[in-house]
Predict the 3D structure of the following.
Amino acid sequence: MGRRKATAGPARGSSRADHGVISEIREKHKLELENLTLTKHPFRTLHFFNLAMLQYLKRSAAYILSKRALFVLLTVMVVIPGVALLVTDGLHKKV
């Protein structure tokens, strides 16, 4: 139950081969992105756009959460106007 099998690490020669395969995959991916257009591949373009936006939002959230003062400031800037909109009467209610 608590025992785990020890696994051997990768051989030294395989790391060089893996590096070559990874660089080939990166080059192929780079070429695909360069040839990607909205008119030729709309769903693939939308997929990559969504992935890029998700990555950007993750980085932004990590940065904001790492800076506590910025997080508090942004929270206050969102909460105060939201509460003000909920509490005050609009022009349609004033008679």
Notes: Residues 42-66 form the longest helix (25 residues). The chain has one domain: 14-87. The chain has three helices and no strands. Residues 79 and 85 are 10 Å apart (CA to CA).
